Every structure is written in C-alpha cells, then in structure tokens.
Protein: non-specific serine/threonine protein kinase
Amino acid sequence: MGLREQVNYFRSIWFATKSVYLATGGRSMTRADAWKNEPVKSLLCPELVHTHALTAVEEGDVAKVVKDLMDEPENKEGTYYTFIQNGLSPLLPACSVIDSSKQRYLLGESPDISICIQGLRKAHKLATHGIIEVKRRKENIDAPEFLGQVKDYLLDLLQAQPTRNDFWAFITNISEIFLVECQRKDTQPGHRADSSYHLVKYGPLSWVQMIHYIRGVTSAPNMGCKPLPFSPTLGLAEELIGGSDKWRIGRFKVPENPDSDMVVKVSLRKAGHCHIQELEILRHLKGCMDTSSNVPEGICKLVWDPAHNLGENECLFNDIDQTPRVQFGLTPVGTALRLDVFKNMDSFQKCISGLLDALQWLHQTAVVIHRDIRVANVVLLQSSPTPVLIDFDCAIQLPVSSDPPLEAKLTTYSGGVICIPERVVEEAIKGRVPVTDVIYNPRIEDDYCALVLLVLELVFPKRYKTFPGKKVNADGGRSCLVALHRLHKDLAVNPTWGHLWDKAKRGAISELHDLASVTLWIEEA
Structure:
C-alpha cells in the first residue's frame, strides 16, 4: 500500500468513527453521542407481510442455524459469519447473502453480513439492500455506540443510492436482534442526504422475524435495490465495479474464455446517443485491431457484443426486460491509475510513453479522437503498470478524407471538466454560456493537451481539486471555467511545462515523448 493510499485509508477510518454535524459548530461527536441526539422512534415489531412468512420447515431450519451459532465459542465472533451466510442463503433465494466482514466498502469499514442483489459474489454499496452487523453475545446491542455504527452505514447507503428512499440494517448478538430503518425525507436535488432522514428502531426481534422482514422488503419497490441490468447469460458477477447515471459496470468471466475476466458495461436506463456511440466506436477499433499490426496494449478491446449477433448494425440488446439497452464486454480488467503504483522513475516513464503510443495509434490508424483523456479514464494492467485507455462514450471518428489539421465535424463537448479544450473554455467564458452549448471542431491536439493535464494531475493532485472529476454537465460552474482558463494561461508561460504545452497544442507527437521525463521534475517540485 503506497503512502497516498495509506493516508486516504486512515482518513476514511477516522471519519468512520465519528458522526459530524453542522449543528455542533464543527465539533465532532462519537457515534454514541450522535445516536443519543437523534429523534429515534422506537417500536416493538415492523409490519410483516404474510405472503413472505416462513413455512414450518423453514422455521425449523432457522432454529438449527441459531443453535449452531449458540454452540460456537463466545470469543470467536468471526466464525459467526460463515454460519449466517450459509444458513440464510437458502432462505433468501432472491438475494445474495455475502460475508463482507473483510470488505471495506461502507465508510472505510466492513459490515459483517451484506444482503445484496442476486447474482453478486462481492458486496458493493450500489447493490446492497441492507446489512446485518454481528456482535459478541456478551455485548448490549441496544447500546448507542452500536446503533450509531449501524446508522452511519445506513447514511452511506442513502447517499450512494439516490433513487431509493428506505434503508434498513439489523444488529444482533445472536440471542437478540434489533432493526434500524432509515427513511429519506426529501429527495429533491441539492439537499444533503444526511440531513433529510428519520430513524425508526424495532426490537428485540427473533431470527424468524428478521428473515420474514428481509423477504418482504427486498420484494418492495422502495425498500431494496433495483435488479442489476446485466444479461443473465453472463452468470454471477465476480464484482460490481461501479456505475454512474448512465452505466452499470461489472466484472464477469468472458463467455468463450472462462479463464479470463472482462468488464461489462450496460446502460442503466433507455440507451441514448452516448451509449450507442461508444459501442460503434469500440466496434470500429476492434476492426482496426483485427487488420493492423503492432497494435499497442494501451487500447481496450471489445470481446463480448451480444447485439452484433442480432444484426451487423444492431446496437441494442436486452434479455431481461423491455428497456432498450446497450451492453458489451471489454478487456483488460484494470486497476486505478495512481502515482504510488509506480515503484521507480523508469516505470512511470514507460507508462507515459505507453499512453502516447496508444494515442498515436488511435489518431493515425483508427482515426478517432478520444475527447475525454483524464485520470479516471486510464486503467493499469493488473500484471504490470501498463496504461490502457477506456471510456469511449465521448469519442468521435474523423472523416475518412480528413487532411491536416485533423478535425472532426462540428459538435458539442461532453467529456470531463479537466480536459475541456482551451478554445471551448474561452468561448464559454466570453459568451457567458454553458460549455455544453459551445459548438466546436474537435482536434487530435485536444487529446495531447489533456494528456499533459493528466500528468500534472497525477504529480500534483492537491492542485486539481478545483476541477471535479465529473462530466461537464454535472458541473458547469463559471468559477471552475475561469480557474481552468487561468491554468491554461499559466502553463503556456511556465518555464518547465510551457514547451510541453506548446508541443501538445501543435500536435507534435514525436516531440511530446519528452513528457515521459516528467518524473525528473517530481523530485524537484
């Protein structure tokens, strides 16, 4: 674990042990004090829907699970998780019951048992219905510090799942069980998720009541996560990698090669232009790869394209409902691009050179402009720190007859904030219009300028907090554009970076390999 990763990890752990409230004037509270200050409504038992009740046989199975748990030594808390996972899984066939005690996915901590969407092997906050926190039998689970911990988990889920209104978590010491519900009060945009909720505590409950409740709420539209939109032919997801308001992204086995993994992207809602555009670009890149020699490792490859089997020009595929979706699989599966991954100067230089080779092939052979080169859109191979360009939903193919300077047809910008082309920034500021309203001709030089900024962001991350790592339509702030415009001007006259910025603006790819020596300046900075 690198230094920066360690700092971020311990920072997340510290925040996970505190609940900070604006009403305290910036002072932090312990979880126990924060729970005591909550207006929590206490009830004996939640409403249980009869259609989800357990049969007599199932109640007998539950009794056996509880007996096995009670027979475990009291000082071996960790062994409870396997019994609970194995015991509850057959009783909750519509869910994935996951031992998440070693997965730090909520507030930097690891909820013991996660009840997730069916089809997952690992828990993820975008796919978690609710949790079960397990304490030792001697613990008083009705204590504020434990209830405060559960509440913090629920608030993290509340923020991660903005389209869902009701959240729940159980806490148990095997002999007793309490339920905490967290309901969103206000779902209007712009409101803080952790300031618009109310809590209800139920209990003590029995194990049968808990399972009865979970069956009911995971079937209710507001109390559980929406099903994953991936094709069932893919089987279980090895991991839900993440998502956005446009995509859900997961890791699956390659259908024709089960020894290899692929990243599958599926449109979250009805497919739009950006979804179809990315698939068409990826098909074009695959065709170029199949007919080209010396294809660099730095371009992701389309390996699963179910819509293509329906027709050569077909892009939509959905075998779970009537929503027109785009979905496809890519290799390789990579890891996030971070500076602390590189062990020495030489490995970082090879990474930058690899990105330049990928862009050169993309522009000269595939004749495509990426238009969204930034840290979030580069991953590293798991076997080595080799960079790979991903996320081509903003990419655009140049006309076949393009002559230098290589420009695409008029369009608008939709990539990340940090890589908005300089002339687009200037036009938006001058005309006092949103970036997304500026019509311009994309150029290959835009990708090279974005690469210079990517290197700067890696080397000096604190200086780039001004620019959100999001698409422009999620930001659009004038102050951010002014700051970006100032950065462009400062780079042009900077004695260290100015000549590189000039080469990027001129598209001098052969001269830009000097950028690979940027690590010489990291030690000086």
In short: The domain at 334-525 is CATH 1.10.510.10 (Transferase(Phosphotransferase); domain 1). DSSP finds 13 helices and 21 strands in the chain. The chain has three domains: 3-217, 230-332, 334-525. The mean pLDDT is 86.
